[in-house]
Design a protein that fits this description.
It is built from 16 helices and 54 strands. By secondary structure, the chain is α+β, with helices and mostly antiparallel strands.
Length: 1013
């Protein structure tokens, strides 16, 4: 019995210890401590646990934090219903239900692989945005690969598991574009049924905001089904997911479905992956991959089939061109996707590109076909094979690699297998120049498909392009704004290009334009830029043109205004935020003594505004003009605005016409038919009403200030004025100029345009000048003769007109002149009839035929008649002779002339009047326009009425030339009108001479010669 007590005592103690141990086992503090110890023993796992409480059928966990390979899971609260004893003793986790709310899975901080990190460290600061961007974009792909590579083989469970039901709700954080916060995706998962040999199914809903500003979406969502299949209680062999996608701010198509799956075949030792994006029955993108466990590499195929309708939902507020892209190929990659190798082809057909940029619509349908074999590793891309062709029904351009090469994404360095051999070759095979129209500012090309061949060789870490044959195109036509600039042109271009990390350079060496076998123009130019920050683009070059060839060929009708033999020049351009242009021009005429030289400086600011200074020298032998043009040009929304100031000391008007011609041609300004061809401007078709003014949408101001302007045979001093141009009118203000410093003309005028008026164009201009010497207004006198008129005149002119077009306006213009003068001398009636009177001795006749009364007195002529006491003549002859001497020089009191020049350019002298003490002349006439003749050489026809009083009237009465009629001022009129013909420089006074000669030689009424003296 003695041993029973100790035995009972030990048993009681054992029961007490068992009770204590059992109580401790169900204590939350002990359970938490044991769980923490278990988590700490897992290699590669960083974990913390707030508390764990396990009963016989349920486990509650709070504040669970797990981190593995950068992925962080935080669970505030988790409840699991399961038989705990079975899980502890039998190592079978049979979960009846699993509930977790407000958990967070952070995948945004999964680090890149070590090799990627090393490259980041090795990359120099400021090593180029390309490398940094490429590396930043590569890291997310590597993170995804690390999560999913070998996902099934990595999930071999330490115990048997089954899961009847789950209710999970939380957030997943994923990496966003560099510099932005991680994207948060809210996820709910409900379902269950996971067990060995069974298929577990879960309903998944996910929604998240889009933080990438490059995408037109504000939020995306997915609703799908997740299937998990367990091959055994401890291994997974298949995971599949299928989801329908939706979006806010840009909706996905309703039938857009994303399917993904991973499976491990029993005993195969590899996993298979599938990713498929589809719309209905059509697969947009499909990736199939295998991941052999032994090789630890992905091997698979890819295929895409995309159309513009698939992309339209991503850009709801923008029209897209018609696109159809299809491609397929193979790929392989390591487990972390640090090296990816892809082989395949891609074919794309696009049309209606004008929705992206209107000029691109001219490209029509474009086909791109690419075949490639490349590998991406770290920051380097290796290309073993590449060929690209661009064209339509047939290839228009083909480029293919001749040897493998590597491209450094970070620095842009290029390395080829054999630097001494060609890297690439290409050819242009009937490339349509019309497709280049989209790349030019309003210029369109037609005809003349381009051909040519080139090779590219690696050099200095970059490449050098050299032509095998020049790029050529035959029969090219060029238009701008509907205007033909050239037709039937043959183009040839030798293009050289060099690119290296230190910079690039492109040369035209040369570019030539020919027509019908004759070269018209040549340009040699070079553009270059250094890679350092803030370096400008530098463009330099020279050019030359055969002006005779341009003028003789109809190839370029828009420059028919060009005159001369040849032109050449050079230019240099510096392009930064603003652009600076320097250039020189030299034009040589058919006569080597005729030339135009100019230097141009222009600055173009960031907004496109241009300021310029261009001194021009025009020399036609000894006739030299030097003009300076200074101003600005701005391309405003309402139309281009030009402000120009033209200055010069001695300028010829004809030379200004040479300067205006290229401006007229460049501005597409409409000109009347009479001047359009010569000035290079456009011409409104006959009978067509202008809908816009001939100056188009140009506005601005042109100021002129010339010390002396030579117009024809006259020099105008101090010519100034301002032309203000707006959309509805052109105004000339403060126009000044004169034939001398003491006679200044004042000019004002305007041309207005109103498209709704009966006659859209209306013209009115006035000019006035005082104290103009008569000499320049009339023809210069013949050598040895005195001028017809001596005195000073005031001139007033008015120009008016209206029309439906510029031609019509010119055709209906009318100019009225009014000339007035006081206190001068007129010699219009001067003539000699002495040679027609036989009684007058020859010496006296010769002398008196060329002088007036004053000179006649030198021959001893005295008294009322210069023939008193001389050879006897009739009283009639004596009266006529005396009359001719009296009117040879008439001192007038006033002269007025009113003339109108109409559309036929004939000057109609509608009213002429001259008043003197004893003489008065009135009449009318015209100066007929003849093309090519100066004013003084045009036909003149004048009919005058002569009135006299005093002694002049008495002489005419004796001569029998006076009528009985008197005018309103009391002058007695000549019995017949006087006609003058010829021209202003050679006035034909034969009718006047014959009238007087006939009167002088007729017999007097008494029938006796000599008049009884």
């Amino acid at each position: 019995m003695k041993f029973i007590r100790p035995l009972l005592t030990c048993l009681v103690l054992a029961l007490v210890l068992a009770a204590i141990f059992l109580a401790a086992a169900f204590s939350p503090d002990v359970q938490t401590w044991v769980a923490q110890m278990a988590l700490a023993g897992q290699p590669g796992l960083h974990a913390s646990l707030g508390s764990l409480s396990a009963g016989l059928a349920q486990v509650d966990i709070t504040d669970l934090h797990l981190e593995v390979d950068g992925a962080v899971l935080t669970v505030p609260s988790l409840q699991a219903r399961l038989p705990v004893t079975t899980a502890v003793w039998d190592r079978k986790v049979l979960v009846r239900s699993l509930v977790a709310k407000r958990w967070t899975l952070d995948l945004s901080r999964i680090p890149e692989q070590k090799d990627a990190r090393a490259q980041v460290v090795a990359a120099p600061e400021g090593g180029g945005g390309r490398g940094s961007s490429a590396q930043a974009e590569a890291v997310p792909a590597q993170k995804v690969a690390r999560v999913f590579g070998g996902i099934l083989s990595g999930w071999r469970l330490p115990c048997e598991v089954s899961l009847d039901g789950v209710d999970l709700e939380g957030d997943v954080l994923v990496a966003a574009p560099l510099g932005t916060a991680p994207a948060r995706v809210h996820v709910t998962v409900k379902g269950g049924g996971i067990a060995a040999g069974h298929e577990g199914a879960f309903a998944i809903d996910a929604a998240g905001a889009v933080t990438d500003p490059r995408l037109p979406l504000t939020a995306v969502g997915a609703h799908g089904r997740l299937v998990v299949v367990m091959e055994s209680p401890r291994t997974l062999n298949r995971i599949e997911i299928k989801a329908n996608l939706s979006a806010e701010g840009g909706s996905f198509p309703e039938d857009l479905t994303l399917s993904a799956g991973v499976a491990a075949a029993s005993g195969a030792g590899e996993e298979t992956y599938t990713v498929d994006l589809s719309r209905g029955s059509r697969h947009l993108a499909t990736v199939l991959a295998r991941f052999p466990e032994a090789a630890r590499r992905f091997v698979g195929t890819w295929k895409v089939d995309l159309r513009d309708s698939d992309l339209a939902s991503f850009f709801p507020n923008r029209s897209l061109p018609s696109i159809a892209a299809a491609g397929d190929g193979d790929f392989d990659a390591d487990a972390a996707f640090t090296r990816v190798h892809a082989i395949g082809r891609l074919n794309a057909v696009a049309s209606h590109l004008g929705v992206l940029a209107p000029p691109l619509d001219r490209l029509g349908e474009v086909t791109l076909d690419a075949r490639f074999d490349l590998a991406h590793s770290g920051q380097s891309v290796r290309v073993d094979r590449l060929s690209v062709s661009l064209g339509g029904a047939r290839p228009a351009a083909v480029v293919r690699s001749l040897q493998p090469f590597n491209l450094d994404e970070r620095t842009g360095d290029l390395k080829v297998a054999d630097p001494r051999a060609d890297w690439m070759e290409g050819s242009i095979q009937g490339f349509p120049l019309a497709s280049l129209s989209s790349l030019t500012d309003g210029f369109t090309f037609a005809g003349g498909d381009a051909t040519g061949e080139f090779v590219v060789r690696a050099a200095n870490g970059g490449f050098a392009l050299r032509p095998k044959t020049p790029f050529t195109a035959v029969g090219v036509s060029v238009q701008r704004a509907g205007r033909i600039l050239g037709r039937g042109l043959d183009l040839s271009l030798s293009l050289l290009a060099d690119y290296a990390p230190k910079g690039w350079q492109v040369q035209w060496a040369p570019f030539t334009v020919s027509s019908a076998g004759r070269r018209l123009a040549t340009i040699e130019a070079k553009a270059s830029r250094l890679a350092e920050a803030d370096q400008p683009i530098a463009i330099t070059g020279t050019w030359s043109a055969d002006l005779e060839a341009l003028a003789s060929r109809p190839a370029i009708p828009g420059i028919s205004w060009i005159k001369g033999r040849s032109a050449s020049g050079d230019f240099s351009v510096s392009v930064e935020t603003s652009t600076e242009v320097e250039g020189k021009l030299a034009v040589v005429g058919h006569d080597p003594g005729h030339s135009i030289t100019s230097s141009v400086h222009a600055d173009v600011d960031a907004d496109g505004a241009v300021s310029f200074l261009a001194p021009v020298k025009i020399a036609f032998g000894s006739n030299v003009s030097e003009v300076s043009a200074e101003g600005t040009w701005t391309g405003e929304e309402a139309g281009p605005r030009v402000d120009v100031k033209l200055t010069g000391e001695k300028v010829a008007l004809e030379h200004l016409g040479l300067l205006a011609a290229p401006l007229v041609a460049a501005g597409n300004i409409l000109l009347p038919a009479s001047s359009a061809a010569g000035a290079g401007g456009l011409q409104t078709p006959a009978g067509v009403r202008d809908r816009i003014p001939f100056w188009g949408d140009w506005v601005g101001r042109v100021k002129v200030a010339f010390d002396r302007l030579r117009a024809g045979d006259h020099d105008l001093d101090g010519v100034t004025g301002t032309f203000d141009v707006d959309h509805g009118s052109i105004h000339l203000e403060n126009g000044r100029g004169g034939l001398s410093r003491h006679s200044r003309a004042k000019l004002e005028g305007s041309i207005s345009f109103d498209a709704a008026a009966e006659f859209p164009y209306s013209l009115k201009a006035t000019a006035a000048v005082d104290e103009v010497d008569a000499a320049p207004l009339f023809a210069a006198p013949q050598p040895g003769h005195e001028p017809v008129v001596e005195g000073h005149f005031s001139v007033a002119s008015t120009l008016t007109g209206n029309g439906t077009s510029l031609d019509d306006l010119v055709g209906h213009m009318q100019e009225e002149f009014r000339l007035t003068s006081t206190a001068g001398i007129i010699r219009l009636l001067k003539t000699s009839v002495a040679e027609s009177i036989p009684e007058v001795s020859s010496p006296v006749s010769d002398a008196l035929g060329t002088v007036g009364t004053l000179v006649g007195s030198l021959f001893g002529v005295k008294g009322d008649s210069i023939y008193s006491g001389k050879n006897p003549v009739s009283k009639t002859a004596e009266a006529v002779l005396d009359f001719t001497y009296q009117i040879a020089e008439i001192g007038y009191d006033q002269i007025t002339v009113t003339a109108i020049r109409g559309s036929d350019r004939t000057i109609h002298l509608v009213e002429m009047a001259m008043n003197a003490p004893d003489e008065r002349v009135t009449g009318s006439g015209q100066i007929t326009y003849v093309k090519g003749l100066s004013l003084s050489a045009r036909p003149l026809s004048v009919e005058l009425q002569f009135g006299a009083r005093g002694r002049i009237a008495e002489l005419l009465k004796v001569a029998g030339l006076l009528s009985s009629h008197k005018d309103d001022l009391g002058y007695t009129m000549l019995n017949q009108p006087i006609h003058f013909g010829g021209t202003l420089e050679h006035i034909d006074a034969s009718q006047w001479h014959d009238l007087l000669a006939k009167a002088a030689t007729q017999m007097p009424a008494g029938g006796k010669k000599g008049g009884g003296r």
